Description:
The chain is an alpha+beta fold. The protein is 48% helix and 24% strand.
Amino acid sequence: xxxKPKRLxxxxxxxxxxxxxxxxxxxxxxxxxxxxSGGLGYIVMIAVPIIIGLILLFSFLSWFRFTYQLEEDQxxxxxxxxxxxxxxxxxxxxxxxxxxQNVIHRIFGLxxxxxxxxxxxxxxxxxxxAVIMQDGTMLHDELKYKKQLPEAEQLEAAEAANxxxxxxxxxxxxxxxITIQALLITGSTSASFGILIGLFGVAxxxxxxxxxDQFYDDATRxxxxxxxxxxxxxxxxxxxxxxxxxxxxxxxxxxxxxxxxYEKELFITRGLLEKKQTTIPLKRIQAVGIKESPVHQLFGFxxxxxxxxxxxxxxSQEVNTIIFPLLRKKEFTAFLGxxxxxxxxxxxxxxxxxxxxxxxYLWRSMSIPLLAVIAVGTFFLSYIWIPAIIMLAAGIIxxxxxxxxxxxxxxxxxxxQARIFSKDTAIIQHxxxxxxxxxxxxxxxxxxxxTLDIAILNKGSGRHxxxxxxxxxxxxxxxxxxxYQEKTSSxxxx
Length: 494
């Protein structure tokens, strides 16, 4: 067991520099462009070396003043250049410890240790950006396992745990690895393609400000002189390139994606260039579900996920955690039985909103396009077909949302299904429901309709599952189920 304060590996300085540059580049770049455009480029030439020097200095001092120490049943961290901050993490409050490696980590034989504690306050979590793999493994095992052993036995236990995890007995623990075919399908239907298209559009719109005016004008004239057919062909090539790039990104990110079920946790490993290990304690899972995008639904695929009670809210993580990149939907029941048998999935007897709820779904999706139709029809009648097509598409979306919405209740859980663009089906155990709220406006009351809001804990602020325009009697039925179960549990506890 470590008893003396230790510093991170010097490579942590590199990670701090990269992180600082990522955070500041969006603020610095526009100012630099404005100064260069205004003929003040010499200021940029003077400022850039100074800024880089300051970043290097502060990154070095941050590394030098950062220490961590494992002592008994807690981890102590001290940091801060001028103002010293001390944080103590008790192993009894630690929920998960994840190890990950990017390219730089792997070159130096290092790992990043991310520690997540109980509660929704991210300030109580911690991350060691660069430690030797041996130290990272020791930290993982010392803080994860509660049993205290002599130092020699701890090292043996850590090695044994690593051996068992790296090469689990196929017959003793459920384990599944994604196939290359499934990974390629995941990449080709991933939402990252749309994100890349958006980023490319934003970057292309800023090209004019980054290159000389004469060059931009000449390039524009040359492109326009090519003819419409060639321009369309170039656009198709760009879209195809971005699509292939999105596939490559998904393959690199989810390469060798493997999920293993242990007694008290799910363990996920993935990544080609950056290897990530994620531990999901079973007791922190608040709901299990599947998401089906229109493309996935068309071909019978789905993405299983879990909602986790967690304090981690940074932008690099999704609100819910995907536990397998892609499954055939018909395999989801078997997947749950293998990895999360505590949850049951069945939608054969799904209770849907009544037909009189359909106008509400259509109005919510078509109201804004309808305003556009009215405006364009008033001032540009010849172009009214454009917003009309958009309104028709919005109506189809509203209709599919109506057809998808519904619920199923059994003794221990509720299944909630809803759709905006993708269909989302969530399985929530009763003990995980934090609150249940019924909403009715006067028109709802007149038509005996109600909207039900089911709240659970998740990363940061909680997650709400909403079923709109149910029959009032259905909303009462769900409320009675929740209240009755709550009372029964209370009686048992007392």
